[in-house]
Specification:
Elements (H helix, E strand, L loop, with lengths): L2 H9 L9 E5 L4 E5 L21 E5 L17 H15 L5 E6 L1 H12 L4 E7 L13 H19 L1 H15 L12 H13 L3 H7 L4 E6 L7 H8 L4 E6 L8 H21 L1
Parallel strand pairs: 2-3, 2-4, 4-5, 5-6, 6-7
Antiparallel strand pairs: 1-3
Helix pairs in contact: 2-3, 3-7, 4-6
Length: 275
Amino acid sequence: MNLWGALRRRILPSRAPLLNIAADEGDGPVIIFLHGIASSAATFAHVIPQLSDHYRCISFDLLGFGESPSPADSNYTIEDHVDSIRSTVHSLKLDAPFILVGHSLGSLLAARYAAAHPSKVSRLVLVSPPIYVPPNQIGDPLIRARVGAYMRAYEFLRTNKEFTMNTVDTLRRLFQLDDILDVSEHNWRAFVLSLQNCIETQTTVSDIAAVRVPIDVVYGSLDQFIAPGTMRIIEQMRHVTMHRVEANDHLVRKRLAKRLVAVLDAGHELAEKQR
């Protein structure tokens, strides 16, 4: 992004569409939840009920997904997504900085939002973050080959629509993921462009490095989309704490949800002691 573009986004009112607020429950410190690609705010169905008795929990449907708008002129870049998040946060008129939680694609967007709007976020929690660096920047040949394989797989998914939709439909039926996994005609364009412009092409390592609040990373030991080499890069950053959940894959299942709740509650208790 050029300098004028960056200044314009900071100074001028955003015309980005407001996102659907799928849930706004409870009272207390605010937590905002951002779901992943090909999904909706239903991602956090096992999380919010465990927190809403002592937090105000707000979840959005991302641009192009769930019940949120799907602008025909959007390229679903990370800037497009974050602009809509910013507009929606602004519409809430929150009095204090909030905790920001993102899952999968939502974690990449959360990192960029926190880096761009440091006064808004008190804490950042990244769940199952699909963080990659360009293969040509990776020295280890095994890790370079693995990341390259991810990129080829993503390209295959977005260029083979019928295969991708059929596969997702099968997974939804086999694993009862109707409310969590969704790739359809309605969100196909958002899926393809978000995959290409936010996940395949990303600067998340730099965004995480730029964030000035504590960051927790919660991920499953069986996560199919985690690149170990990149995770080693971010776990060396002083403000990042890693939380590995055994026997959990990429999804926010009950085991991972329980750990995420514990991480959020532990952070809140620490903040209270430091006051």
